[in-house]
Automatic annotation (TrEMBL), chain A:
InterPro entries: Cyt_c_oxase-like_su1_dom (IPR023616), Cyt_c_oxase-like_su1_sf (IPR036927), Cyt_C_Oxase_1 (IPR000883). Residues 47-61 have a biased composition (Basic and acidic residues). Residues 258-507 form the Cytochrome oxidase subunit I profile domain. This is Cytochrome c oxidase cbb3-type subunit 1. Residues 45-67 are annotated as: Disordered. It comes from Modicisalibacter ilicicola DSM 19980. The lineage of its organism: Bacteria, Pseudomonadati, Pseudomonadota, Gammaproteobacteria, Oceanospirillales.
UniProtKB/TrEMBL annotation, chain B:
PROSITE patterns: CYTC. This is Cytochrome c oxidase cbb3-type subunit 2. InterPro entries: Cyt_c-like_dom, Cyt_c-like_dom_sf, Cyt_c_oxidase_monohaem-su/FixO. The keyword Acetylation does not apply. Keywords: Heme, Iron, Metal-binding. One of its GO terms (molecular function) is electron transfer activity. Residues 44-184 form the Cytochrome c domain. It holds the Pfam family FixO. The lineage of its organism: Bacteria, Pseudomonadati, Pseudomonadota, Gammaproteobacteria, Oceanospirillales. It comes from Modicisalibacter ilicicola DSM 19980.
Amino acid sequence: MNFTIGTLLAFSFAASLIAIAALIWAISTHQFRITESDARTVFGDEEGGKLDDPTSPHSDSHPSAVDPALSPEWRRLLIVMFVTATAWLVFGSIFGLIASLKLHLPDWLTGSAALTFGRMRTMHLNSVIYGFLSLGGVGAALWLVPTLFKTHLHKPRLAMLGAVIWNLAVFAGVIVIGAGWNDGLEWLEIPWQIDIFLAIGGACFAIPLLYTAAARRVNHIYVTGWYYLGGLVWFPVLFLLANLPGVHSGAQQATTNWWFAHNVLGLWLTPLGLGAAYYFIPKIIGKPIYSYRLSLLGFWALALFYSQVGMHHLIGGPVPTWVVSLSVVQSVMMVVPVVAVAINQHTLSLGNLWAWRESLPLRFVALGAILYTLASLQGSLEAVRAFNTVTHFTHYTVAHAHLGAYGFVALVLFGGIYYMLPRVTGRAWPMPWAISLHFWLVVAGFAVYFISLTIGGWLQGLAMLDATRDWLASMEVTLPYLAGRSLGGALMTLGHLVFAANLAVLFFGRTRRFEDDSDDVATPATATSTGA
Amino acid sequence: MNRVLPLIVVALAILAFATLLLVAGPAAQIRSIDPPEGLAPYTAAELRGRNEYISLGCVYCHSQQPRSPEQAPDVLRGWGRPSTAADYVYDEPHLLGTMRTGPDLLNAGARLPSRAWQLTHLYQPRAIVPQSIMPAFPFLFEAKEQAAQGDVVVKVPARHRPEGKVIVARQEALDLVDYLLSLDRTYPAERTDLRDNGFMAQEEDS
Ligand code: HEM
Ligand code: HEM
């Protein structure tokens, strides 16, 4: 027994090390033929060196009224993606806020099963993960992949079909969870019968992007493309294997469950967020990332280590020791790709602080990238056995979850949407002040959210480990912090409503189109101050 | 990095390798084990109750996986001995959970075997534990003027129920309690190698 454990561990560890060594070799001997000048792929022929931000009055880059490459079908698709993503954000936040309030007001809204904590929380998670983050992230990919490949989106009608099917499937999933029908596995609650449609919808997104990649007009695939291509092939495999009905059971099912759930984070949401950040940060600032070669290490090390970390959700649980230890080791190894990405993205954004002042989209994206680094370093720490013993079953984990899923992925998407929509629609944001308000509301709200739960969760964990204290002490100690989270969450939700309102006015209000005045293309007349 | 196909192939190979380790490896070890002698399969009523547990999301507040004494005082809290993979052979889906907003429930039936206590607690947790933040589940019950024959009347202090009414358990509540009472893994542990003994090892080393 011990022999198999030891050999398996040693084998995978050796394989990982060999793979890393091979990568370093490949990079140093130019096997992958990537050069620092490839990092300039994000810029068009005349671009670069200047601020590029359709929301800033000082942007040097004039967004052409409507990008000529943008076919009406493609444009409609992107609008549908971002508008429905925003709708899911609003619904998801409201569900989250209700769930949060219920944790300290347990007798509020107890009249109906659909409103009970267990269902509200699950509707929250599925709305924000499969609704907002997935639709927003894929929407960004549907714009960025063709743009980077200097071509148009192939098969936009198929992608539109995907958008419709995906939305209906998430909608049906959230409704049936509210009605009490779910598969009973965290992150896989949507019944597999509905998951079939999510899989079909996902394929409808992947196929046009693969066609687009095959028809690209540039030789080099920029780093954003690696993450997107990786995510697009990983997610369908994960989703299918984890959802196979009748295959998994008992403690074994728990390993499949967390193999899936962490890979949704690591091989789906993270690539969507990082891919976008790798584009927007250099694009808006007008300078390439710090070290393009390093990004290669970041990508492959992420693929290798992240795919094996899932069992850090079962530390101390009823699954074999070796598989938990394996995940703990790989979780710590994740420091390698995280630092690689950090060096690349933060040296650029922090070296150009003027751009933070100038550009609100950049502020969202660059802050999101920094929170990715922090969430990941925190995660590596949380996976260490001694640390996990305190935090595992507590609200500390929830704080970390939001630092990653919200602080990182959601903020990057907000910035991306602010940058993309003016180019997609040819219209300026109608209420530039609302962008700034959105930023400060969610940053302040999230700070309150994160700090409350981090302290409350840590105290909860210490109380639970203290055999001299009644277990109830660990519950009571969290109460003020749970209330604090509701306050922070309310501010975040308010920020999301401001965002949604800005979006609504963009489409339905009397907004200025860029083509209306060619002198001052980038700014609506009302935009006197966008920075705050 | 100028080619799509090699990128996709390598990316999928890495995922396949991880799947082999995290999914296939544990499955090969766990799926072949025999059920412990002391563990009975769920009855039809218990399974219906289990579905209520899933549908109402009890798992988001309650874990079902006591930790080892080397790691945490779970045994001292009366939550039971550290569980092993053998304790879950009849569980589909698994309900291990990742939160302890409430206590661990793997041995709830052994610890709290009173049907009446469980029913009152589900109707209104604060009737028993005033500071509890567990939700009340009044929709699993019916408030009647008078109990009919065969009704299971739930003891609820007057301040927690509509005036002049009696509280009667619906079938869902009875099933759910059946499930909770079935949670009893107090028989001797089997296959103790099939759990995370990483903390034990640390203890032995030092
Ligand atoms: C190096 C990178 C990371 C590592 C090693 C890591 C590690 C961990 C650990 C140890 C837990 C706690 C499991 C538990 O005790 O129950 C956790 C939970 C979580 N992490 Fe991370 N994390 C990382 C990055 C991220 C990122 C970037 C995101 C967001 C995209 C994220 C999202 C989450 C979520 C949502 C949970 C909660 C899962 C649940 O219980 O439902 N993590 N992570
Ligand atoms: C787009 C924004 C958001 C994202 C991506 C997000 C993501 C998540 C995730 C991944 C979890 C699972 C955590 C875990 O299992 O450990 C979760 C749980 C939760 N979220 Fe959010 N969230 C967002 C916004 C909000 C807001 C605005 C609130 C309002 C207070 C909120 C409140 C909650 C609550 C109460 C839970 C349940 C925690 C528990 O089980 O104890 N979330 N969210």
